Amino acid sequence: MKRLSDLDYLKLNKWQAFWYKFALFFCAIPSALWKGIKKIGGFFKNCGIAVKDEFVDIGSTFKRGNWAVKLSFFIFGFGNLFYGQVMRGILFLLFELVFIAYMVVPTGGIYWLSKGNWFQKGATIGTVQGGFQYNEVFDTDVWVPGDDSVKVMLYGLLTFIFIFAFIYTWRLQVKQCRICMDITAKGKKIRSGKDDVKSLLDDQFHKTLLALPLAGILAFTVLPIIYMVLVAFTSYDAAHDGYSNLFSWVGLDHFNELFNFSQGGLGLTFGEILSWTLMWAFFATFTNYFLGMFVAIMINKKGIKIKKFWRTVLVMTIAIPQFVSLLYVSKLFTTSGLIGRVLEQIPFIHNWRVANNFVSLWDSPTVARILLIVINIWIGIPYIMLMATGILMNIPQDLYESAKIDGASSVQQLTKITLPYMLFVTGPYLLTSFVGNLNNFNVIYLLSGGNPIKGTAGGASVGHTDLLITWLFKMTLGSTESKYYMASIIGILVFLVVAVLSLIVYNVIPSTRNEEDYK
What we know:
The protein has helices at residues 6-10, 14-64, 67-72, 78-82, 86-104, 109-116, 149-185, 193-200, 205-231, 253-258, 266-300, 307-319, 322-332, 338-344, 347-355, 365-393, 397-405, 410-438, 441-447, 468-476, 484-508, 510-513; strands at 131-135, 140-144, 453-457, 460-463. It is mainly alpha-helical. The longest helix is centred in the first third of the chain and has 51 residues, at 14-64.
């Protein structure tokens, strides 16, 4: 599509300008996809170059290094000890000894790796199946434990991580030995252990402070995510719990099951739930945002009295725990609830309910979804109102006064001053709010429980108001089959959807592209 010059664009009316931008957007999609593919290709190319450079550097280090550097290829920290860096040398050597001891002990790393049958399709995770055997002492069958698939996979994963850490540490200490050799050759002084401690408490203090949080993230976030990904390639469920019955590697079989879009396959159900999840997240985010901002503008408007009272009334919904308020509100719309009884007196609603054989409003898929969005507005407006109040107070009043002098109406002031400023400041919040609503378990589960039920899929009931997160919950804790592997696959897909949307939106919102505009 041919781009218009700035002068030709200014000659367009509002509708022509809108359709011109609309056409430009869709014409830009192929080029954007191509750029994305090129970036991905460039990333892998750079990774390959980096790996090649590392191997070249290792070979060069061994070839050019003295006997101390060469010996450090086999004895961790030997070069550091040789050049007087005693503390570093002892730590590196201690790490190597711990690694070797862990790998060779009877129930150490080699043991767990041998038990895993890693990624051999059809092979069990664990080699010894537990079972009942006759015991002469008790004169009855007793349970003789075997391997535990859960434990084997966990300790095997930890062993792999330990091996990667060993390789990284080996590379680090070899590089440090070469640096020490080069510094000594130039006649310069090498950092001592005392200098390292001082550095960690001074110019490198940020590393000291971040060490513990980083370890926590690796242990409690990264490791569970990797474990969840591994579970997706196994048959881990209630029938194969890993203890009484070992589970096995199944490859991509369960992914094929989820993306089976034939009649009766999980693909159609997954697509329906995903579309409702995205629809729910969109309406739950933007209805709260714009209505909460509107309420904040109205309360802050000059001439409004008892402002503190109105804010207090709205904040009361935050003070009451959602577990209580949402369960109570859900009962209000049943036929025995207060609102349900009032609505039942309206002939149109009564006749509609009877004709469709609905016991309450929650039995209608469309009405249930609308109720969820409306009730979520009641929950979310106070948060946005409080946040918007603080932001609105920081907008320079000179902008509004200048706009009034130029003859701008209230609507024009809203669209040209208030809304752009709010969107700029709250762009990251909108992103996090959208992501949070994609996984908003509380509102859906406490209000509707995913109902009304429309069928069963993945070994669990599926409702018209189920989100991916509630469906995942039903597969694991709300079902006798407890298909952990399918829940893991859905968790991976939710992560991918959230990650892709977050990256796209984060790179589009002006809050990150034009950070200096409002300073």
